[in-house]
Amino acid sequence: ETLTWTEAEVAAQEWEYQGVQGHLVTISDVDEDALVAAVSRSTQSWIGLTDHPAYSTSGEWVWIDDLGTVVCLDDSGNYNCTPQNGAYQNWGPNNPAHLGEGHFYAYMNSNQLWYSKQLGGTAHSYTVEFDLPIDDTPVTATTAFTSADAYSSQIVTGANGHTYAAVLAMLTWT
Prior knowledge:
12% of the residues lie in helices and 35% in strands. The protein is built from two helices and 14 strands, in the order βαββαβββββββββββ. β13 and β14 form a beta hairpin. The strands form two sheets. Strands 2, 3, 4, 5, 6, 7, 8, 9, 11, 12, 13 and 14 form a twelve-stranded mixed beta sheet that branches. Strands 1-10 form a two-stranded antiparallel sheet. The two termini are 13 Å apart. The protein is mainly β and 174 residues long.
């Protein structure tokens, strides 16, 4: 089973861990990138980076939890995303892609590099992040997250206090 980026973001927001609502992971430095790669251990795991027009101006890549801050500007064809304000990025060669239109969503591959996928593209997993420590943000999640929900039952807390876990797409039988 696979999920689109939008399905993964909705699923991540439905999780709650220790009173904090989840979201697709955002990555701010090389240490966090390595931690996410170690947790996901999967080819093509969705991360919370997008330049979809519903979230930003096309070509302005933003993290789903901070839509007002542009991570990088894509020059729409030369496979070069210029970092903004010292933002961390780890794009693979020739990414983010703009082959035609619609490469709006980012995933991390097993090589720890980021790649873009077209609208409607799918991946086998996503990495959810819980921004601990708990603040006053209201929780609207609907499902408690436990180690049984995490890929290989692995939930990891980073030096920044945030908690990370990879989630495989669920098989459903009808």
